[in-house]
Automatic annotation (TrEMBL), chain A:
Annotated organism of origin: Chelonoidis abingdonii (Abingdon island giant tortoise)
Catalysed reaction, written as an equation: a 1-O-alkyl-2-acetyl-sn-glycero-3-phosphocholine + H2O = a 1-O-alkyl-sn-glycero-3-phosphocholine + acetate + H(+); 1-O-hexadecyl-2-acetyl-sn-glycero-3-phosphate + H2O = 1-O-hexadecyl-sn-glycero-3-phosphate + acetate + H(+); 1-O-hexadecyl-2-acetyl-sn-glycero-3-phosphoethanolamine + H2O = 1-O-hexadecyl-sn-glycero-3-phosphoethanolamine + acetate + H(+); 1-O-hexadecyl-2-acetyl-sn-glycero-3-phosphocholine + H2O = 1-O-hexadecyl-sn-glycero-3-phosphocholine + acetate + H(+)
Sample GO molecular function, one term: 1-alkyl-2-acetylglycerophosphocholine esterase activity
GO cellular component: cytosol; fibrillar center; plasma membrane
Protein's gene: PAFAH1B2
Keywords annotated in UniProt: Cytoplasm, Hydrolase, Lipid degradation, Lipid metabolism
Sequence segments annotated as region (Disordered): 1-35
Domain SGNH hydrolase-type esterase: 56-215
E.C. code: 3.1.1.47
Protein name: Platelet-activating factor acetylhydrolase IB subunit alpha2
Keyword Lipid metabolism: yes
Automatic annotation (TrEMBL), chain B:
Protein name: Platelet-activating factor acetylhydrolase IB subunit alpha1
Stretch forming the signal peptide: none
Assembly description: Forms a catalytic dimer which is either homodimer (alpha1/alpha1 homodimer) or heterodimer with PAFAH1B2 (alpha1/alpha2 heterodimer). Component of the cytosolic (PAF-AH (I)) heterotetrameric enzyme, which is composed of PAFAH1B1 (beta), PAFAH1B2 (alpha2) and PAFAH1B3 (alpha1) subunits. The catalytic activity of the enzyme resides in the alpha1 (PAFAH1B3) and alpha2 (PAFAH1B2) subunits, whereas the beta subunit (PAFAH1B1) has regulatory activity. Trimer formation is not essential for the catalytic activity. Interacts with VLDLR; this interaction may modulate the Reelin pathway.
Family as reported in the entry's similarity comment: Belongs to the 'GDSL' lipolytic enzyme family. Platelet-activating factor acetylhydrolase IB beta/gamma subunits subfamily.
Coiled coil: none
Gene Ontology terms for molecular function: 1-alkyl-2-acetylglycerophosphocholine esterase activity; platelet-activating factor acetyltransferase activity; protein heterodimerization activity; protein homodimerization activity
GO biological process terms, semicolon-separated: lipid catabolic process; spermatogenesis
Length: 241, 225
């Protein structure tokens, strides 16, 4: 079910589909073992079998989180599912969510973390892609509260991708408050030291987080999820009054 | 292969920085710098299967006690490992054992070429690290169901199994504990994306490797100073 066309802010593309980062796109099987589709299919099956209260969706930052002990400690008890696929861009996540990964489930909270792999796109396009994901979730899962995680800095020393990711975060800070049921959780602080360097202790390859790196961001994330899970419709109404 | 043939898998090649944050080169330099004051007995070199191993508890349990260093880089093919070695990644250290685990990312290369690339790594190590025993790990199956890459990796292992024992101080270990089930499927409990090992997958695979390393280290000791 597609919604009617929405008015676009003046500083955005005039048509949503002229932003390639906001066009759903399945990953091609370039390697020859079809792993992307296999993972997607598994997630679709999970939607049929399971009843998650919390859904995580995104790239390897999401996927790897499940490999560490911290997932079992903090998120499994919340009945969380992990639909992260390494290498994914916003376009890949959009495709997956449109093609079954939001069906048969009714999570209370959806965590979205994607954008650092959008190498072909500008910061504006990446932010637009993330907004498109949030709008899709609002349509298909109107009951769900969305948490968008900020993009992290990357690379050992200052480099253009750090600036780009920071720009994406800046754009999201401005645009997300205009969308429904979503907030941006900025977890990007604390990784860049005073000399501009990122440590291998936080990101083992200056991109992917170590267990210690995840511990830094998961405390705030877990607290926010707990808060959103506990908010009942009555409490929310009272807060708005 | 005749002398005129160039095997891309055995041609030292740096990984191009297409993303723009220079991470590959930064890690290569970090490996060199960090090894200046270390005296590892075992060095692991290879791709993400090596690199990720260090993120799990099992590294601390089984391999840290052996004074091991980890020079794994995700995405590396044999030609990238060759370049790193040629550029002196191990110039500061003289380990007793080097574990080589690479080849699954050699996309577009034939099994023959990949095996040739791994052999080139072994020969380079024999030149640079004549004191070291080299352990080459077999390539694992991948993908959720049967696919051409499984077949290629299997062929690489077959070639290595035949050729490596002829090289001095070299052994080949197929550490696959049986990841492919009778229905041809690989479980995401072992490989969370049907390529990279989960904690559970490493727990199934590492004991055999660990046992081999202990045996080889024991033999090194027995041989005397």
């Amino acid at each position: 079910m597609e919604t009617r066309g929405e008015p676009q802010p003046a500083n955005r593309m005039s048509k949503g589909d002229s932003n390639p980062a906001a066009v759903p796109h399945a990953a091609e099987d370039t390697q020859g073992d079809d792993r992307w589709m296999s993972q997607h299919n598994r997630f679709v099956l999970d939607c049929k079998d399971k009843e998650p209260d919390v859904l995580f969706v995104g790239d390897s930052m999401v996927q790897l989180l499940q490999q560490y002990e911290i997932w079992r400690e903090l998120f499994s008890p919340l009945h969380a599912l992990n639909f992260g696929i390494g290498g994914d861009t916003t376009a890949h996540v959009l495709w997956r969510l449109k093609n079954g990964e939001l069906e048969n489930i009714k999570p209370k909270v959806i965590v979205v973390w994607v954008g650092t792999n959008n190498h072909e796109n500008t910061a504006e396009e990446v932010a637009g892609g993330i907004e498109a994901i949030v709008r899709l979730i609002n349509t298909r899962q109107p009951q769900a509260k969305v948490i968008v995680l900020s993009l992290l800095p990357r690379g050992e020393k200052p480099n253009p991708l750090r600036q780009k990711n920071a720009k994406v975060n800046q754009l999201l800070k401005a645009s997300l408050p205009k969308l429904a049921s979503v907030q941006l959780l900025d977890v990007s602080g604390g990784f860049v030291h005073s000399d501009g360097a990122i440590s291998c202790h936080d990101m083992f390859d200056f991109l992917h987080l170590t267990g210690g790196g995840y511990a830094k961001i998961c405390k705030a994330l877990h607290e926010l999820i707990m808060q959103l899970l506990e908010e009942t419709p009555e409490e929310k109404q009272a807060a708005l009054a | 292969m005749s002398d005129g043939d160039k095997n891309p898998a055995s041609t030292p090649t740096p990984l191009a920085d297409v993303q723009g944050d220079g991470r590959w080169l930064a890690l290569h330099h970090r490996f060199i710098a960090d090894s200046k004051d270390k005296e590892p007995e075992v060095v692991f070199i290879g791709d993400a299967l090596v690199q990720l191993l260090q993120q799990f508890e099992i590294w601390r349990e089984l391999f840290s006690p052996l004074h091991a260093l980890n020079f794994g880089l995700g995405g590396d093919g044999t030609q990238h490992v060759l370049w790193r070695l040629q550029q002196g990644e191990m110039q500061h250290i003289r380990p007793k054992i080097v574990v080589v685990w690479v080849g699954t990312n050699n996309h577009g290369h034939t099994a023959e070429q990949v095996a040739g690339g791994i052999e080139a790594i072994v020969r380079l190590l024999q030149q640079q690290q004549p004191q070291a025993r080299v352990v080459v790990l077999g390539l694992l199956p991948r993908g959720q169901g049967p696919n051409p890459l499984r077949e290629r990796n299997r062929q690489v292992n077959e070639l290595l199994q035949a050729r490596l024992p002829r090289l001095p101080n070299t052994c080949f270990l197929d550490a696959d504990p049986g990841f492919v089930h009778s229905d041809g499927a690989i479980s995401h409990h072992d490989m969370y994306d049907y390529l990279h090992l989960s904690r559970h997958g490493y727990a199934r695979l590492c004991p055999r490797l660990h046992a081999l390393l202990l045996r080889l280290l024991g033999e090194c000791q027995g041989a005397g100073p």
